[in-house]
Amino acid sequence: MKKLLLSFALLLVSLVSNAEDIKSPKGNFNLHFNLKEGVPTYSLDLNNKAIVKESKLGFDIKTIDFGSLVEAPSLTSGFTLVDSKTSTFDEVWTPVWGEEKEIRNHYNELVVTLKQETTERVMIIRFRVFDDGLGFRYEFPAQKELTYFVIQEERTQFAMDGDHTTWWIPGDYDTQEMDFNKTKLSEIRGIQEKMNSSNVSSKFFSNTGVQTSLMMKSNDGLYINLHEAALVEYPAMHLNLDDKNMVFESWLTPDMQGNKGYMQAPRTTPWRTVIASYNAGDILMSRITLNLNDPCKIEDTSWIKPVKYIGVWWEMITGKSSWAYTDEVSTIELGVTDYTKLKASPKHAANTQHVKDYIDFASEHGFDQVLVEGWNEGWEDWFGKSKDYVFDFTTPYPDFNVVELRDYAKSKNVKLMMHHETSGAIRNYERHLDKAFQFMVDNNYNSVKGGYVGPIIPRGETHYGQWAVNHYLYVVKKAAEYKIMINAHEAVRPTGLCRTYPNLIGNESAKGTEYESFGGNHVDHTTILPFNRLLGGPMDYTPGIFVPINETNPENTSYVRSTLARQLALYVTMYSPLQMAADLIENYKQFPDAFQFIKDVAIDWDKSLVLEAEPGDFITYARKEKGGERWFVGRTNDEEKRTSKIEFDFLTPKIKYIATIYSDKKDAHYETNPQAYQITKYVVTNKSKLKQFVAPGGGYAISIVPVKDKKETKGLRKL
Amino acid sequence: MKKLLLSFALLLVSLVSNAEDIKSPKGNFNLHFNLKEGVPTYSLDLNNKAIVKESKLGFDIKTIDFGSLVEAPSLTSGFTLVDSKTSTFDEVWTPVWGEEKEIRNHYNELVVTLKQETTERVMIIRFRVFDDGLGFRYEFPAQKELTYFVIQEERTQFAMDGDHTTWWIPGDYDTQEMDFNKTKLSEIRGIQEKMNSSNVSSKFFSNTGVQTSLMMKSNDGLYINLHEAALVEYPAMHLNLDDKNMVFESWLTPDMQGNKGYMQAPRTTPWRTVIASYNAGDILMSRITLNLNDPCKIEDTSWIKPVKYIGVWWEMITGKSSWAYTDEVSTIELGVTDYTKLKASPKHAANTQHVKDYIDFASEHGFDQVLVEGWNEGWEDWFGKSKDYVFDFTTPYPDFNVVELRDYAKSKNVKLMMHHETSGAIRNYERHLDKAFQFMVDNNYNSVKGGYVGPIIPRGETHYGQWAVNHYLYVVKKAAEYKIMINAHEAVRPTGLCRTYPNLIGNESAKGTEYESFGGNHVDHTTILPFNRLLGGPMDYTPGIFVPINETNPENTSYVRSTLARQLALYVTMYSPLQMAADLIENYKQFPDAFQFIKDVAIDWDKSLVLEAEPGDFITYARKEKGGERWFVGRTNDEEKRTSKIEFDFLTPKIKYIATIYSDKKDAHYETNPQAYQITKYVVTNKSKLKQFVAPGGGYAISIVPVKDKKETKGLRKL
């Protein structure tokens, strides 16, 4: 009888119970889902400490009826829990390229099926709890009551447990090329109000809106990151902060009518991710974003290879050279303007001879590719004119001989890297896409740097709305048909799609090295980027500036907020399968010993470790090259003088290595003395330790090579 | 001295004179341009009677600076006349297809160059005066002070000299599929206010906005038509009426930000046209629209041929059959939904056997092509869902065998006509365009009916804005690369571009025959269309409905507002190089004698004449086939019983012809007795006359064939 009563009680409890808990495999994280009086909520603890307090879930939607939008009940309340399932997943997969050779995807999953009683609409939420955080997404199964609907807003909350410190940029529908602010959550509003008042044209959509990924640190040292994974056929998510209660809510990028996402069930949303640890390095080492993306969809990936490149680019960024062929006219019409009749500017850098010089240098120093910008008709009026038919991506200037350079590069075992600046004119780019890609194939190009500089055309759309998000992936998929790799600048910040489409080898979507030439980046910029921007995928940061800008172009008074040594470190700390030695080749010729590190550094890895990390202060990485035994260490610093303390216990035991350390001299300084670097060699083993001085805006880079011949160690001290 | 003073006076006069006059070649029209205190104006007289009273010209613009729009002085005042030139042009050109074999382009031209003093901006206005009216356009030459600008509104006025009667449809950015209203100008507002109050979702942009072309008739019997020609890279023009002063002003179609046209000088606008005559037939016979367009840009036009076709279409329009393959699902995903696993609806008409039946019929009766709608995946959820990836234009349903039908049609010397319904999803269509056209070529299609049913995607754009206008021409040009002819339904109403791109063989852009099935057209609809819609180019009106709709589909209670005889007449009165016998083939089999006219009627002409015409009442045309001696006469009627009185003086003298007259019986009526037709044969010569009864909603059709053998005349009366 007791048993019967107990069973009955349990039955009753299970009938009314609307709460579900699921832990990470190690048991440290707990995801608590709770349907509170029909309102779906979740919370996340780490070892019983709240990371995300009780937060609501759901959507405001409209449905579509004969082309018109119709009001519909919000998908935020009135639900019952009709089903819940748990499962476990544990698999190791191999990325085509990456920070490590293998990645483990291990999580416990909870799937709850909710039904809204009044509408009979079904919404599923899938939670995956990893040992370093949480990912969850919404799913709308095929159902009679809900097929075509339009998201007015996603109502996903992330309730923070305190006035955390955060490194943020303001929410914006078109750019991430902004400096990070480091403030308390409560201080965001004040900063944005100041920014708004000084810049009439750039009102933010909210004074407390921020972009993701968002990096935070609680008062008791818990690092928290919020982002999304697998952004497909959906607008990018910003976060809007209720700064009374410290609750973030998703704020999607609208289209020009204010609608946020056009959906057709069955459909899933991107994943929303919460990564947390008391160890900053764990954030950097988290692979949640990649793990939440679909496995690789490209069958044959043999043509996808990391690329180390130089380019005809920095000279234009600094203003020394021009993209445009001529100064004679300021407006052109493709197919009408006869460039052969115009006077070539001596500043036009993308000319055959100059490119050959770069090909020679690349060949001599083992670089794979040479980027050339300004090779094609259209640069005279490409920017700021809202020009639709702005480039055709296949017609070179008169001084750029496509065939000659194709053959010359081939003879030197170097490829040229294509450049497709779209100026944001998306329809124009898509109209030319097949011809542009075929042109690349015909001329031996296999990678392209794309750009979206300028407001998106169709006018009224933005860089981060569903329309543009759809476009970027369209380009990646079509490129794969032609076996072409994509490096898309000014596109939406990545969300791990490179797992599914590994030909997406790079993006920008943050302030990169070019901004050193436009007034300079914050000194600590590269100590923050890996915690924010790089969570979603690699960045084509294009470091490697050795020579002060005003030596490259005396008219440019901007300077690089970095020592030379730190520039080398960035090849290790700013992970990317695509790495540029961005400076002019004549500048590298001045420093062959330092340049040697760039030549040596690997760009694909078996293994990566974070040795030291504090967002906004410093990051030190150690990485082992893929398929080899060399290790590389890199350290990037903020504006403080610091001492880095690392141990080499990652090295293989009982093996001796030569470590070549490229570091700041004691008097190095990013502003006053950036070129003060030194190179020292040591013998190291896995027992070695290093205490290394790091200058303001400085860093160091180490290449660590196993000793082959005892003679190599002659005269070297041991660390 | 006197001479000197005179010269000096003339010099003074020419310096201050800001007026220019130019007459038509015959001297009947006078165009008066007058720069009144810096404000450009024009007026147009016909034999000293005002057609257009003094009307202003110009633009409100903004310029573009670094992507932002900047306020700029209007281009409406502050001008001086810096130059004026006159010239004459007289040329006969040969259209690839048309209402006549040759067209004379004869005008006097005045070009005035205006300079705005404060901005130094130059605006040119080019006036061409023909013997039947006026065309003028603006031109912005290459100039330093004005290159990239955005039209906020065009400020072209057409000041009417009275409260004319007008046949109009309301201004609208997405559709022309509306019934014409016949009212005074002063009554437009009242009608639109009523229309607005009954239809909440469809507010017009103005209560006195109307579309072009616009047909009017003054109180003293002067017919006036306003339209535009050569609409390229510019938004479509509507007219907004100041109904106090009876002054129309251009109202351009905006983009989603409210901007009206993105311009880059050097650039010209479309032509604005004013056609006028006391003879209604002269309006129909005016070739001003074609003459203002650029000559043919396609080098080899041998593949462009008029098409007479039947189709698997009307059965879906009436609801008897379905476009969709299956009823089993109401939502599909291209490439995911497996149609082979779904149950085919017995109503799916586009199946191999049924299409073969149509091919057989076409072959037997001498038709060139068979249109098939509903052949391709996607029809289950194509409409009203704002679906982006809605069709791929190349994947057939399981019951439509592309290759089998290709070969079968070829064996029967018939082509299939392709159908590309885009659902307004422009980007999706463009992404598939090359593959879709190549698919056509591979499968022996050379013409396609395109559709844009539904709101345009990118959402926020409209059917008539610059964005869509650019798209339609992009499709026409690309089609020409594949030697494909275009018949674009729901696109912007044509403006004579078929002269430049004669592969544009048809458009819709008005209520067509399909509306007979959706509630019926106005009885007099086809007596108005040629005065409005057809001024810009042919319409794929798809007439030829013989059998009441409720016999084709008992569930459809709509009926055709037309007698059968009038349906035959439409092949003559609704000029088009593309003519469909739209009814079901089984319906034609019931009336082989009447159907004979459709088989016989030509679709390309040496010569055309208007015998009788009054907008809204009746139109009678006579046309001579191209390269032959047969004539065809057609008469379309309004809701009144009428007697048509025509003379056959257009026939070649001294030749006898057999005239077969397909006419209404005395008791015929479009509603109660539409199938009451009779066929009578006569011998006719150029001295013959005819008095022919025409029923309400009726008409008659006559084929006139030279007698070859006297035996033919046996037993026939002579007219």
Please provide a written account of the structure:
In chain A, 18% of the residues lie in helices and 34% in strands. In chain A, helix 6 (352-365) packs parallel to helix 7 (402-411), helix 8 packs parallel to helix 9 and helix 12 (564-573) runs parallel beside helix 14. Chain A contains 14 helices and 38 strands. The first copy, chain A, starts with a helix and ends with a strand. Chain A has 719 residues and is of the alpha+beta class.
Summarize the structure.
The structure is a homodimer of 719-residue chains. Chain A has 719 residues and is of the alpha+beta class.
Features:
homodimer, 719 residues, alpha+beta, ten-stranded antiparallel β-sheet, eight-stranded antiparallel β-sheet, 14 helices, 38 strands
Q: The biggest beta sheet of chain A, please?
A: 10 strands, antiparallel
Oligomeric state, counting identical vs distinct chains: homodimer
Class inferred from helices and paired strands of chain A: alpha+beta
Gyration radius from CA atoms of chain A, angstroms: 26 Å
How many extended strands of chain A? 38
How would you describe the shape of chain A? globular
Low-confidence stretches of chain A: none
For the terminal residues of chain A, how far apart are their CA atoms? 75 Å
Name the chain pair with the biggest interface and residue counts per chain. A-B, 40 and 40 residues
Query: What proportion of the residues of chain A form beta strands (DSSP E)?
Result: 25-35%
> How helical, in percent, are the residues of chain A?
10-25%
Number of helices of chain A: 14
On the 0-100 scale, what is the average pLDDT of chain A? 96
